[in-house]
Amino acid sequence: MHPSLAIVGATGAVGIVMRQLVSERKLPFRSIKFLASERSAGKAIEFQGKTYQVEPLRPEAFQGVEIVLSSTPAGVSREWSPIAAKAGAIVIDNSSAWRMDPDVPLVVPEVNAHALARIPKGIVANPNCSTIQMVVALKPLHDLARIKRVVVCTYQASSGKGATGLSELDAQVAAIGQGRSVPPVTAHRAQLAGNVLPHDWKLGEDGYSEEEWKMIRETRKIMGDESIQVSPTTARVPVRTGHSEAVNIEFHQPISVEEAREALRRAPGVVVVDDYAAGQVPLPLNAEGKDETFVGRIRKDPTVPHGLNLWIVADNLRKGAATNAVQIAEVLLQRGWPRNR
Asked: Which of 40, 79, 126, 139 has its CB surrounded by the most CB atoms within 10 Å?
């Protein structure tokens, strides 16, 4: 029998894409409901030819629900994901609330689907958007030559801040184009149009931002190797959708460009776009609306014995969030979940 499904945060930027992907990927369900904050409760949603009312987050809303796709702020998730799990659901959570909990698997299906064998809290964490696309590309290379160190610089789209980030960038671009003053900044920390922002300016340990620490810790957990060293610098750029990353990798063992390219071509979820002379490189505009991770500019790093440079691009709302969550649900269903935990 198909599961009963709920989408939490159904009216947000990621929630909207989750709804699209449930239809596009034909995720099976016998019933579906859409939940959101009180502010969005009562709104009408058209889905697969039917009209649904958005329901408010309440404990009784999860009765009978077996799989939850959730995209909410971390504080909301800390409160409501355990309630949904206690009611019997498996919660696939897109927030940062549960990612480093040792009893919560942090999963990218192309990399560590095996982690879904044990879900003691009834919660599965969806990783950070920038981490997801990077580890999809790292995994086949790690299997080939074992990664020692990663240096990554991200160029993250405004949609990573949700619908408010997108609308703010659009308003700024329009104002600049019309010669008007840029509206007051609310979503980002400073004007994004015509600018590049160090990511969110929220410092954690040792001067690194929260976003940077996410990439460090999540990469090690997903890859199952605490010895991998990760040195990230994250930034927000005036792009609507699609995160880009310049990734430098040092390996323990020899690896050639040709070996890396072939391993990436065979890897699930990866598309190699790597003819720089012909202008064939991964671009955010070309990745928008797609579920794959695009890899190009594969070249040797001549400064270390075993090193490569990559350029990695993916749609942050899809593979970086909604697609990864739906893929987790697909794996669970293939393995016979939901079942009594």
From this structure: 126
